[in-house]
## 1
Amino acid sequence: MRVPIYQIDAFTENVFGGNPAAICPLYSWLTDPTMQSIAAENNLAETAFFVPDDTGEADFHLRWFTPAVEVDLCGHATLASAALIFDDLMPDRPEISFRTRSGILRVRRDGDYYVMNFPSYPPAKRDAPAGLFEALGTEPVALFDAPQEPERDRLMAVFENEDQIRALSPDFGALRKLPTVSIMATAPGWQVDFVSRYFAPNHGIDEDPVTGSNHCLLIPYWADRLGKKKLVGRQISARGGELKCSLLGDRVEMAGKAARYLSGHIEI
């Protein structure tokens, strides 16, 4: 069997930047173990698979796999999938929709940007799991999770400034001992509204380059704290990426560019 595969760098206009995602457009689903094996073989933060949606709710049914697990929500692989569809499959469409584990997600094109409409998950303060701060290597000024998020395993640690985020060097072995935990770290940015990094070794990713889904928490938090509904965020991983962000009531929008790196086929 030959399965088409593309690799697209999301939240960047240049290859080798942003967050790489693999995308496999399908006419019908492969088995779950096969898709998980493809994601593990790709060894990228995310591999996305989509098929035409047969429910009438959306244009496509979209699923995302890390090298280790299927996840409920992924931003950069959604943006990469939309870029492929807009460029190759539906160039005349102003908007496309995906049915996902996190509901219907819509993406529209705005010049060179792909604008994703995602749920907003306002964060709430919570206590730290035992061993978290030791694994992170430092203690933040506050810790949050999102009560509305389907799986409350994603934590948000808030720090005072960007330099502290850049200096983080977590103990990934210690983080793996907290089996349900992934953690984003965020602070005000020097040149943008906020910066962040994301560590998810229990999802098969020590540090994710640019994490769109985190912004479902980051946007409502920073919009409330800064008193503005339009923001610019930057994820300051080694590859890095920038997002134009908006708070729209119970939804958020995040916009980024994409650069295609690879087109080919998988032989299985």
## 2
Amino acid sequence: MEVPLYPDLPPDQSAPRGGQPAFWVGPRHLAGDDGRLYDVVADALAGLGWTSLTIVRGRHEPDEEPEDRQVLRSTVLHISPDALRWAQWGLADEPFHLGGLPIAWQISARAEASSPLAQWSAYFTRDVPGEAVVDFLVALDASNQPAVPLAGSELVLDAVAAHGWFRDIDQPQAATDPTFTSHISLGEVPPLIQDGDLRALPAEDDETRPAGWQAWAEPVLGDPLLWVASFAASVPHDLVAAFAASLSSTAPVLRRVLPEATQERLLRAPTI
């Protein structure tokens, strides 16, 4: 059973200078995104040399002051130097949901810059640990062929097993963490997940559809999910393995904001 290292120091304790204190916390898959998922990922993409563009759609009435403008959708698009991969941040007025949670990051790749369509997309809601999204993007950026699979599905399960996650006896292509709160599974892909493989389109015979990786955290059975990540069937397994290895890592992460649903499950220690 996981308990705080310092139970007398609540996570919202005021810091000496009025700011929030920082803690080293674990396990990572329950640590949330620190409320900084955009900043952490955007900074990493800037370091990789990706270009960012802000896209705003709204309604502007005559004689309306700028501060009164109604913005209906605002996204930020990050594009790799070779234009084969891109990442979009957007919490829109009518967001796309996974597991009841709005999508925060959508990451896509294509085989050729001349193609107007993505070969695959991956989706991450808020509270997915930023470290795992960054490691997925670093692996994507390093890939010479981001739309070509280079390894089998076992690579993903091996990545989490190396950090103590258990293979599901009833579902060979699934694994769960030792606390049975976070899961990763190769199986049915949710509706509307973008995939360049035509076999992934909905059909009467769903058994012919290729499987994709899904990951999620459910701190309390039956309660709302903490986070969800969904990968189209065509996302290369080696990229999903990079995400899975980072997500399941036993290395502590720095946090100032802890998810309410998992505060009591986290090991934490002050940074000083």
